[in-house]
Amino acid sequence: MENEQSFSDICGGRLALQRRYYSPSCREFCLSSPRLSLRSLTVVTSTVWLAAYGLFTVCENSVVLSAAIFITLLGLLGYLHFVKIDQETLLIIDSLGIQMTSSYASGKESTTFIEMDKDPVEPHEISQVVPVFQSAKPRLDCLIEVYRSCQEILAHQKAPSTSPQAHQKAPSTSPSIQKASIVSRGK
Amino acid sequence: MVLKAFFPTCCAAADSGLLVGRWVPEQSSAVVLAVVHFPFIPSQVKEFLAQVQQTSQVGVAVLGTWCHRRQEPEDNLGHFLEGLSAIFSHEPWLQLCREKGSTFWSCKATRWQGSTSPGAPSEDQVMIVFYDQRKVLLSQLHPPAILPDQETGDAAAGAVGLAAVFHTVARSEVLFRSDRFDEGPVRLSHWQSDGVEASILVELAKWASGPICLLLASLLSLVSAVSACWLFKLWPLPFIWSKLSTCEQLRYRLEQLTLIFSPQKAENPSQRMRKANMCVSVLLDVALGLTLLSWLHGKGRIEQLADALVPVADRVAEELQHLLQWLMGAPAGLKMNRALDQVLGRFFLYHIHLWISYIHLMSPFIERIVWHVGLSACLGLTVSLSILSDIIALLTFHIYCFYVYGARLYCLKICGLSSLWRLFRGKKWNVLRQRVDSCSYDLDQLFIGTLLFTILVFLLPTTALYYLVFTLLRLLVITVQGLIHLLVDLINSLPLYALGLRLCRPYRLAAGVKFRVLEQEAGRPLRLLMQINPLSYGRVVHTYRLPRYGCHPTHSWGSLCRKLFFGELIYPWRQREDKQD
């Protein structure tokens, strides 16, 4: 089951949140930032090349122009591969853990997986706080949506399912620590 | 809790049979290691599993059944499989089933004990996680889940979470040794069942490495015994050896080679990686050195180098003489004290004259020396660079001498000034109490003290200027030497084998795992694919970096400036660290 909703980030840009419910124990939230706009790219390139041309008229050395072209190309590639994050995904799998993926504009993906710890002693203790959606920076309303869905999954875990296992140890029916909680930035 | 069934991707196309693996009750996960095919005799299967359990210390058991329906639904097979749960009892009993022509699987996990309604089994929710058995077997988690000293006994229980899956697969190697061409009692399906992976080159290398290691180890011990001989301990030889960076580098390389060729096998993966990294580093070093050697010995470059050396030294001495003439005049418009200026200037000029004569004395032998030094490049590029650094130190020895003279003079002057300044104010340094106390001086003491103080103050600019000029020159030489040492350190400590492994076989160095959700259908169990998340390059370098010899300057910028201001000598020479990594 998939649905898409539109939110805005702390600077006012548009974000698209896609929710996928694979099963009652597995959900995915995908936050997409706006892509690299042609306008900003043109502006930056023109500025750099005009500055290079200005230097060229002063020092009459064509190396300046080639250097400007190289710098623009390398800078663009570096920006696309290391800086521009297009999509951030949060995948929650019941009793396994939480996975956060950032997809860069060049196609590179960087993934972190946080395992869920079953601690029988303190089931409600928070052991680790990890900020999510650090690049997209959505506003509070989007974060509340995600948080609510996460709590639904944890509640589903806690609630006894079709076959209650009374002889099991308490932790397996009322598990887990919230190993990752969502931190909201800004308003 | 949801039951997680870790299923190897290689068994997804296997025929129907029994699922064999390990059950981890704390995480409610079943790690399937192999599939046992029909026909089998239950007692033989149980015997085989007991053997595997004893050898590998992993609690391998029959976890359930696997049904791959290739033709039309076979009811009798279904009933037969259900009957097996009575023979091999396991809680919970897994039943995985795959239909022909369908990508979706069906899963059932039944428990007989602990259900609320006795007589009827309770069913758990199941999640299937696919994993690539070969990659999981070969990969190494960072940080390691099990510490090396815990590897005995029931260590499989030590790993928590997903590390338990890795640990189980890695320890069950004995299960994967038989392939389908073996005539054993049990027919298994796993990642090596199509043929055990082996390489002729690797086997040959292993066989040959024994005698080669012994030979080289004995040669190296001979070399170390010779170098530890009493002849080399006569003074001043140890003093010279400790100052030359070439000796340090040679000693370091000797230690590394001794470690690589030691006949003992490496006990744990980190030692193996360290050996491999050292080996690749030495090989690269020697390769670069041989390239340099071939470049040097071609086209008469040695002669060019030797011919250029003496004129360069002459030029440096000439520039220094010009500098001193400038200082003896009115440098930058400052007015110096004539007498002191002349004394210092002439003293240093005479020094330079001695140095030039020495260089001219050596000039017939320079070419031979350079030729022999160039041969050292076959020991490695690092040795050549160390020799270059030592040659620079020797050629600029006069600058070092000037720096020491200037620094000592300046230091004495500063000491004198500070104590006479205290006298001028009527105070004294109390050595017992380590503080400044007031003191009553006699009149003649005060008179002479003040006189000396004024003399020193007015001579200060001259000494300070000489000190400044020679310190700057010395710092320039130290910078050049420092850059060379940085390059040598880089070649010494970069873990090239680990970086190559990360580039070509990224699954070997695992930082963790990542999951991908496969096609879903409502009502069917959730299917996930578990992949290895490789370590980032920065962490690879940080984890596997080889230990460096010597220490880096431990003073911070602040203490360096303080030392320069008070005229204390700064020593950039490396002191060998006593503790080894």
UniProtKB/TrEMBL annotation, chain B:
TM ranges: 343-361, 373-396, 402-424, 445-469, 475-499
Keyword annotations from UniProtKB, A to Z: Membrane, Transmembrane, Transmembrane helix
Any one biological process term the GO annotation gives: GPI anchor biosynthetic process
InterPro entries in the record: PigQ/GPI1
GO CC terms, sorted: endoplasmic reticulum; membrane
Keyword field contains Zinc: no
Signal sequence residues: none
Alphabetical list of PANTHER family matching this protein: PHOSPHATIDYLINOSITOL N-ACETYLGLUCOSAMINYLTRANSFERASE SUBUNIT Q, PHOSPHATIDYLINOSITOL N-ACETYLGLUCOSAMINYLTRANSFERASE SUBUNIT Q-RELATED
Protein's UniProt name: Phosphatidylinositol glycan anchor biosynthesis class Q
Chain's gene name: PIGQ
